[in-house]
Amino acid sequence: MDKLATSDLKLGIIAGGQLGKMLIQEASKWDIGTYVLDSDERCPAGGIASRFIQGSHLDFQTVYRFGKLVDILTYEIENINIAALQRLKAEGTAVVPDPDVLEMIQDKGLQKEFFAQNAIPTAEYELFEDSEAVRASAVAGKLSYPFVQKLRKGGYDGRGVAVIDGAEGLGALLSGASLVERKVKVAKEVSVIVARNRCGEVKAYPAVEMVFDPCANLVDLLICPSSLTAEQAAQVTGYACGIIDLLGMEGLLAVEFFIDDQGKVIVNEMAPRPHNSGHHTIESMMTSQFEQHLRAVLNLPLGSTELLHPAVMINVLGAKDHEGPVFYEGLPQIMAIEGVKIHLYGKTTTRPYRKMGHVTVLASSLASAMEKARQVKKLLKVKAWQKD
Question: Considering the entire predicted model, what is its pTM?
Answer without folding.
Answer: 0.94
